[in-house]
């Protein structure tokens, strides 16, 4: 019987049950040899009662243990014990098989979503990227997860994503017994090709992760059905409803590409998905927000790239390294006051025009004065001539000489 304090293979002492799933139970345990806390997945009796299943499970466990990636919960050990968990299909007790794994401090995404309902686009993109890197490590070794779902994505307190249960789904799929509970748990995220009975490929993991992303962004699953068969058929033939309008277009397009029905048209594997996420991040930085036709300012731009750490508030209008699509002209400053204008400023056309207009008036005044003086000179000469009794040509000569002297001294 499984209970706290039970010692498996004289090494792993069970301390507390963590979870119960379709394939068995997960317990926290103490590794008495290495002095570390581990997680032990103990398989149900109907699985361990089949020798062929146990052989396949053992082989998959060894392959999974070869994965060494920070985004994958490590597999430490596999064992079989004489401890009888429960009666097998034949009614007799059978020894149990177990898998010893890294105990991840955190909680599954399936526990986070009911509490927060939706993840932000930036957080969803981060979960996708971390999971995509872990899938890339597995796909590079020709290992397909086959059961990507929120329950197999563990979130640590610092936001790290750990993928669990690699390879287990393949063995479970090949088991000769019916596991209705487990199928119900995975039918919501199953790929169309898996639902149609075809072999899973790396792109199948991408589809399942796309369904997870849809649930994170929309707060609901893309398909609902009353039966497992109905749910599977929805993945085969139905298109998911559009994501909410507040999901940025590049992210919505990414998720749509992950959920394409034809695996040949999806991201081929984890590496291709990560490349697509990188393009979305660059698009989010370089592309201005879409205009809505409203006169009010648009909401703050959502950034999908990881924001750099800043030591102070960001100044509005500071250079960010990305050129905006349009430039708003700066407001025209009023001209400086006359006293502040530089000496080398524009030519003062009005002042020059006034001076030009003043010159003809000055000449007209000078001629008038000259003419008056000439008249006065003639009058004076006549008086002098009379007084001196100058007659004849001598008087006329004096008058002309005086007039010439006056004219010659004019302007």
TrEMBL record:
Stretches assigned to the Protein kinase domain: 12-280
**Source superkingdom:** Bacteria
- Parts of the chain that traverse the membrane: 366-386
SMART domains recorded: S_TKc (SM00220)
Q: What is its EC number?
A: 2.7.11.1
Composition bias of kind Low complexity appears in: 287-330, 340-353
Output the CDD domains linked to this UniProt entry: STKc_PknB_like
Q: Which segments does the entry list as coiled coil?
A: none
| Keyword hit for Nucleotide-binding | yes
Q: Does this entry carry the keyword Cell membrane?
A: no
Any one biological process term the GO annotation gives? negative regulation of fatty acid biosynthetic process
Q: Which UniProt keywords apply?
A: ATP-binding, Kinase, Membrane, Nucleotide-binding, Serine/threonine-protein kinase, Transferase, Transmembrane, Transmembrane helix
Locate the region Disordered: 284-361
Query: Pfam families, alphabetically?
Result: Pkinase
Q: Which Gene Ontology molecular-function terms are recorded?
A: ATP binding; protein serine/threonine kinase activity
Catalytic activity entry: L-seryl-[protein] + ATP = O-phospho-L-seryl-[protein] + ADP + H(+); L-threonyl-[protein] + ATP = O-phospho-L-threonyl-[protein] + ADP + H(+)
Q: What is this protein called?
A: non-specific serine/threonine protein kinase
What organism is listed for this UniProt entry? Nakamurella flava
């Amino acid at each position: 019987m499984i209970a706290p304090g039970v010692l498996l293979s004289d090494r792993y002492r069970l301390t507390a049950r963590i979870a119960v799933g379709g394939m068995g139970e997960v317990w926290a345990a103490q590794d008495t040899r290495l002095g570390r806390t581990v997680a032990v997945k103990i398989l149900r009796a109907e699985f361990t009662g089949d020798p062929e299943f146990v052989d396949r499970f053992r082989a998959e466990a060894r392959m999974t243990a070869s994965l060494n990636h920070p985004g994958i919960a490590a597999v430490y050990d596999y064992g079989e014990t004489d401890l009888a968990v429960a009666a097998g299909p034949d009614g007799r007790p059978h020894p149990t098989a177990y898998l010893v794994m890294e105990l991840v401090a955190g909680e599954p995404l399936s526990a986070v979503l009911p509490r927060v309902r939706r993840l932000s686009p930036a957080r969803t993109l981060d979960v996708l990227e971390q999971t995509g890197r872990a899938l890339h490590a597995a796909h590079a070794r020709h290992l397909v997860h086959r059961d990507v779902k929120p329950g197999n994505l563990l979130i640590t307190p610092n936001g790290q994503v750990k993928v669990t249960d690699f390879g287990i789904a393949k063995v479970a799929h090949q088991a000769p017994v019916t596991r209705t509970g487990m199928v119900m748990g995975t039918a919501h995220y199953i790929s169309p090709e898996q639902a149609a009975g075809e072999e899973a490929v790396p792109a199948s993991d991408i589809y399942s992760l796309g369904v997870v992303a849809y649930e994170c962004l929309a707060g609901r699953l893309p398909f609902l059905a009353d039966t497992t068969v109905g749910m599977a058929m929805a993945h085969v033939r139905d298109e998911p409803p559009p994501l909410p309008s507040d999901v940025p277009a590049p992210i919505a397009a990414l998720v749509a590409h992950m959920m394409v029905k034809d695996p040949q048209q999806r991201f081929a594997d984890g590496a291709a998905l990560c490349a697509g996420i990188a393009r979305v991040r660059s698009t989010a930085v370089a592309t201005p927000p879409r205009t809505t036709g409203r006169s009010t300012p648009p909401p703050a731009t959502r950034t999908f790239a990881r924001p750099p750490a800043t030591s102070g508030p960001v100044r509005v209008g500071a250079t960010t390294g990305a050129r905006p699509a349009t430039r708003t002209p700066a407001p025209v400053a009023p001209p400086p006051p006359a006293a502040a204008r530089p000496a080398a400023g524009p030519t003062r056309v009005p002042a020059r025009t006034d001076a030009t207009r003043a010159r003809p008036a000055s000449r007209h005044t000078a001629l008038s004065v000259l003419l008056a003086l000439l008249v006065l000179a003639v009058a004076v000469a006549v008086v002098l001539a009379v007084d001196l009794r100058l007659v004849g040509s001598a008087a006329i000569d004096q008058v002309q000489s005086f007039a010439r002297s006056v004219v010659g001294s004019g302007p």
